[in-house]
């Protein structure tokens, strides 16, 4: 069974440019998460989707970050414009869903963003 | 807000020694606790998940305990190997949100 797929794996951009990250969760997983991980720290949740609905986006900086999961499967996270402080690893995770309680989360390899 | 602390931040041991990694959290009203492994430049690999009603979970050389009332979990890795070198992260679930510690970076010397 394929795991969580993310692309690109690495991205280098200049500040003020836009950037987008893509995630395809494990087949059948209804819940999708985007996390941000700064160097030497644990991941922090940006947004959680249940199917196509963003049910928790309280930590997403909405002035420059946006996300979508139009058909309830794959998802895109966008930053526009990027700032130097956005340099980090962006992780996508998925879990089977809300039914039956809180599930184990499975993570993708992440996208390492460098903003110059 | 849930605060998760992992001590020590780094650990270096000779091959064959047992590893003990500690995790503490401030809010005991958790759904579950997960231990992850992260290799440099890679994503997170789930090692063990302990439900709030459980006291421990075991997988091979790994054993994780949970004391919810005191807000602590411990990951034991028996007979460490150089391949166990990685960063180990603890994460607690309140509702559907995972709160992570900063991790313990383990080096196993051959």
Please describe what this structure looks like.
The complex is a heterodimer of chains A (116) and B (110). Chain A is mainly β. In chain A, strands 2, 4, 5, 6, 9, 10 and 11 form a seven-stranded mixed β-sheet that branches. Chain A has a four-stranded antiparallel β-sheet with strand order 1-3-8-7, with no helix packed on it. The termini of chain A are far apart. Chain A contains no helices and eleven strands. The N and C termini of chain B lie far apart (41 Å). The model of chain B has no long low-confidence stretch (mean pLDDT 94).
Profile the largest sheet of chain A.
7 strands, mixed
Question: Which chain pair shows the most residues in contact?
Answer: A-B, 26 and 24 residues
Uncertain spans of chain A: none
Radius of gyration of chain B: 13 Å
Helix content of chain A: under 10%
- Helix count of chain A, per DSSP? 0
Task: State the distance separating the first and last CA atoms of chain A.
Answer: 37 Å
Shape designation of chain B:
globular
Secondary structure class of chain B reads mainly beta
The whole-number mean of residue pLDDT values of chain A reads 92
From the N-terminal CA to the C-terminal CA of chain B, the straight-line distance is 41 Å
Quick summary:
Chain A is mostly beta strands.
Show the helix and strand layout.
The complex is a heterodimer of chains A (116) and B (110).
Chain A: E1 5-7, E2 10-13, E3 19-24, E4 31-37, E5 44-50, E6 53-56, E7 65-68, E8 75-79, E9 88-95, E10 106-107, E11 111-115
Parallel strand pairs in A: 2-11
Antiparallel strand pairs in A: 1-3, 3-8, 4-5, 4-9, 5-6, 7-8, 9-10, 9-11
Chain B: E1 4-7, E2 10-14, E3 19-25, E4 32-38, E5 44-51, E6 56-59, E7 62-67, E8 72-77, E9 86-94, E10 97-100, E11 104-109
Parallel strand pairs in B: 2-11
Antiparallel strand pairs in B: 1-3, 3-8, 4-5, 4-9, 6-7, 7-8, 9-10, 9-11
